[in-house]
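Possible regression after last week's pipeline update?

I re-ran a chain I had predicted before the update to compare outputs. Posting the input and the new output here so someone can diff against the archived version. Not blocking, just want to make sure nothing changed silently.
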Amino acid sequence: MSEWTIGIIGGSGLYALDALEEAQWIAVDTPWGPPSDELLVGRIEGVKFVFLPRHGRGHRIPPSRVNARANIDALKRAGCTDLLAISAIGSLREELAPGRFVAIDQFVDRTFAREKSFFGEGLVAHVSMADPVCPRLAALAADAADRAGAEVTRGGTYLAMEGPQFSTRAESALYRSWGCDVIGMTAMPEAKLAREAELPYALLGMVTDYDCWREGEAVEVGQILAQLQANADTARRTVVELARRLPAERPPSPIDTNLDVALITPPDARDPALTARLDAVCRRVFGQS
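New output (post-update):
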């Protein structure tokens, strides 16, 4: 059993957490380059939180340029035990109206211009992504959002597109035919990297629009920004409610040790340079080697 340290990755419209007590911004260096911003560290209801604005304060970084490896590495170095992403999403279903929150449980990754793994030539690993989110954290986050006043859907498939352009109508219709429920530009490879770093990950999506599958509708930034403001207030309350609902002690998660069955390359064959870059991601495993 141990204490919780919850990393919050804030998406569009969520650039700070006002409820943090004794909050301070800290800089964290990573071997993968700079993260999107400094980390805002503090406590809510006695629970330690580490907040990172995914696009940087002022929304400076477009989706394809978010350094997800640096972000996850920095959160791991800051001592996070679990990660909750709160992200703007478009809806691919009539019943998922703007303003609704969706606790995602599956992903379809259609991104193509991003680094998707910490591992590679010299140190190979294959983590399972069959169940890409932590069910415990997802349930806690959904309960917190419900308590914060959001209309919450539990479960949904997120289509991760490259962007930064929005979908064509043909693409939106295709994604619906695949069984996808919502669409966004940032959850991948973030969720994959969190799993490689042995960090349980959950995502609360905040619906801002209906994408463009509805006849006569198209996504516009002005519409999204207006909905984001309302969603962000609810998201901040959700984080406070999450802090109130966490068990006093954090029970272990199977995700905490998933690299035990993922690393392929034996220690004597590992590339020293890559091994050095993985000092935070593989801290537990290397400590056992």
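Follow-up from reviewer: compared with the archived run. Residues 221-245 form the longest helix (25 residues). Marking as no regression found.
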